[in-house]
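I hope you will forgive my troubling you with a question about protein structure. I should value your view on which stretches of the chain appear to form regular backbone elements. Here, with my thanks, is the record as I have it:
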Amino acid sequence: MLLVKQFLFIIFLCSLFVQPVSALETQAQEALPQITMENLFSKTLTLDSSLYTVKAGDALSKIAKKNNTTVELIRKSNGLKNDVIYEGMKLKIMKTTFKIIVDISDHQLKLYAGDELIKTYPVATGRTGHATPTGTFTIVNKLENPVWYHAGKAVPPGDPENILGTRWLGFSLKSYGIHGTTLPETVGTAASEGCIRMLNQDVEELYSIIPQGTTVTLTP
């Protein structure tokens, strides 16, 4: 009987110092950093990311779609030079929901991860007579080197008349979106025909982060 009591007492003491696995996991999760642009594009795990194990038949496009992220972001955050992956490979995947808020009068686009502001970009907004609309819309299409449909004609990428720059992020409001520019000096002013105009390097970065379905709120 004495041995049993001693054994039970030892178990009791151990319980004071050994935490449940779930508690340890919670502490480890809380120790992860918040999202910043620096760790967004690195292998650093954050509160809003996880490790995904590549399965047979997987492709980056399939993984991106399943996790509501982009192929470009998976590539960048895992240091991949191409789309080649293999079964059993571990990939950092962002699980957060991004959103965009544009302050029209201040000519600023703010990128949020959940409720956390992670970057502010300068933009051009609508000039007099071509006001940028207000409201909340979604990104419904994404194009690289877009054709500009203007004044009844299609202006191809590379044409001096095509002012859309290198990327297009189209809104659920027809004919409006976020795009690059061949006129970088206009960014930070009211100069567009109602769209949100960004520097090409900025719109390319934004394009790589946000998937279709991302909400965009345009405020006065």
